[in-house]
């Protein structure tokens, strides 16, 4: 029997699906209704059984897609120095000191391997939240999300039916309860275009978007219908409205059943979408680029060329990326901030690549001046690592908001490895700083 919450949510989804593509003005009026329905279905899609452990490699995914090396224009990346003093300095005060400001928190890939759904089963046995509970895995992120106006995740893979069967690397089809957990910790929406988007075909793609819709999570990058395909993700904060445009470099050699199903990297097309989003009322437009060489510490030529083209267009206020399963530099390019790679938000631990186990969250603060123009008025970042026994997302930011959730030696190693990469393109000199959430607060 359909519960009252399921009935309300299903009908809201039907009536609001077209509004995302139709514009922000109508989308704003429905946000509160969707939020109310999401509360009523907080336990939606809890269920599922365990699948056998896959035979694929632990940790990373596309071993044949490239290694740590990168084709980079000569002289583009300076040599990494030791972590600068800025990495340990206090934050710069409240994230949004005025009402004409809002903050956006971004995280890397949600990359779910069999070891993680085994952990979710163990956690569910303790919490009583169905056969699979991923919320403890993500719980550490709540501190950062709760002080941000908006938060966007990246769903790397398609999801299966709640009770499976599930599949890991190389053709993923993972438990949908990972998205239930993303919703529970406070994400506003997710990007969905990746090299794994069509691992489970059209059925898997549609199923993933259906789960996001059922939870009230906005999304862009892949689409269930031609009508509205290619539309940005629209999100509203109290001070302003945001649009996110996303695209992926490819689909691991697969071809989507329909050409409109997944956004592929095309700078002119992304610029056109940004212009359309502004015409629909978006105050701030952000680009997400799914590209790069796996486990690299520098962006490749495609990432740089695409990001710079988007920035040069003047249509994007902020640009970020994912895919490499490693943290990449932050750059201020002619006044536009580019975060080239956020690494992994969650993943199984790789025995070969330490960088695979690490991630970056960023908080971009957007402020409106007296003339009505929006700019990134502050950019903050915090590094993280996945720990095991039990598997958990663990912040290793200088203020340790979760306490010492990683051993001190590992915590020091992660910071020594990631901070020089983050700052290797002059991010600190340009004003980016570590996000010490316990000191500088956040949220508008």
- Rough shape? globular
Total domains: 1
> How many H/I helical runs?
12
Which fold name fills CATH's third level, the topology?
A: Purple Acid Phosphatase, chain A, domain 2
Name of the CATH first level: Alpha Beta
Give the CA-CA distance, first to last residue. Answer: 41 Å
For the residues shown, what is the average pLDDT?
84
Describe this structure in words.
β7 (284-290), α9 (301-313) and β8 (318-322) form a beta-alpha-beta unit. The model is unreliable at 1-93 (pLDDT under 50). α1 runs antiparallel to α2 (24-40). The chain has 444 residues and is α/β, with parallel strands linked by helices. The N and C termini lie far apart (41 Å). The protein contains 12 helices and 15 strands. It has one domain (42-49, 89-440): 4-Layer Sandwich (Purple Acid Phosphatase, chain A, domain 2). Strands 1, 2, 3, 4, 11, 12, 13, 14 and 15 form a 9-stranded mixed β-sheet that branches. Strands 5-6-7-8-10-9 form a 6-stranded mixed β-sheet.
How would you summarize what this structure contains?
30% of the residues lie in helices and 20% in strands.
Could you name the key traits of this structure?
nine-stranded mixed beta sheet; 12 helices; 444 residues; alpha/beta
Any chance you could write out the topology, listing elements then pairs?
Layout: H1 4-22, H2 24-40, E1 101-110, H3 114-127, H4 135-138, H5 142-145, E2 150-155, H6 177-185, E3 189-191, H7 201-215, E4 218-220, E5 233-236, E6 241-248, H8 267-279, E7 284-290, H9 301-313, E8 318-322, E9 330-333, E10 336-339, E11 344-346, E12 358-368, E13 374-387, E14 392-395, H10 408-422, H11 427-430, E15 433-434, H12 437-440
Parallel strand pairs: 1-2, 1-11, 2-3, 3-4, 6-7, 7-8, 8-10, 13-15
Antiparallel strand pairs: 1-12, 5-6, 9-10, 12-13, 13-14
Helix pairs in contact: 1-2, 8-9
């Amino acid at each position: 029997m359909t519960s009252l919450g399921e009935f309300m949510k299903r009908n809201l989804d039907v009536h609001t699906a077209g509004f995302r593509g139709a514009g922000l003005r109508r989308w704003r009026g429905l946000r509160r209704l969707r939020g109310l329905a999401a509360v009523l279905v907080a336990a939606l899609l809890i269920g599922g059984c365990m699948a056998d452990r896959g035979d694929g490699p632990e940790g990373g995914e596309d071993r044949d897609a490239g290694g740590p090396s990168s084709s980079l224009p000569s002289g583009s990346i300076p040599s990494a120095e030791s972590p600068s003093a800025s990495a340990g300095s206090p934050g710069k005060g409240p994230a949004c000191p005025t009402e004409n400001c809002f903050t956006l928190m971004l995280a890397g890939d949600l990359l779910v391997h069999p070891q993680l759904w085994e952990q979710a089963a163990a956690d569910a046995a303790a919490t009583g939240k169905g056969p699979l509970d991923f919320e403890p895995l993500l719980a550490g992120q709540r501190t950062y999300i709760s002080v941000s106006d908006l938060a966007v995740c990246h769903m790397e893979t398609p999801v299966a039916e709640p009770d499976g069967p599930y599949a890991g690397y190389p053709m993923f089809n993972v438990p949908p309860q990972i998205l239930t957990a993303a919703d529970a910790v406070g994400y506003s929406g997710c990007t969905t275009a990746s090299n794994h988007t069509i691992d489970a075909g059209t059925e898997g793609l549609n199923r993933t978007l259906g789960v996001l819709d059922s939870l009230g999570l906005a999304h862009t990058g892949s689409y269930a219908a031609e009508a509205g395909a290619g539309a940005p993700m629209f999100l509203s904060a109290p001070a302003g409205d945001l649009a996110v445009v996303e695209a992926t470099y490819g689909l691991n050699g697969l071809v989507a059943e329909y050409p409109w199903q997944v956004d592929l990297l095309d700078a002119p097309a992304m610029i056109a979408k940004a212009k359309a989003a502004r015409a629909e009322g978006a105050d701030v437009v952000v680009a997400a680029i799914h590209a790069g060489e796996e486990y690299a510490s520098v962006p490749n030529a495609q990432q740089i060329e695409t990001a710079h083209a988007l920035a040069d267009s003047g249509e994007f206020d902020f640009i970020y990326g994912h895919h490499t399963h490693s943290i990449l530099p932050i750059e201020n390019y002619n006044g536009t901030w580019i975060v080239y790679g956020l690494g992994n938000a969650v993943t199984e631990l790789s025995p070969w690549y330490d960088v695979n186990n690490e991630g970056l969250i960023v908080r971009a603060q957007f402020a409106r001046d007296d003339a009505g123009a929006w700019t990134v008025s502050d950019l903050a970042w915090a590094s993280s690592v996945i720990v095991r026994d039990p598997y958990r997302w663990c912040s290793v930011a200088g203020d340790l908001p979760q306490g010492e959730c990683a051993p001190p030696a590992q915590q020091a190693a992660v910071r020594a490895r990631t901070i020089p990469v983050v700052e290797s393109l002059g991010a600190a000199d340009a004003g980016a700083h570590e996000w010490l959430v316990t000191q500088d607060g956040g949220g508008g």
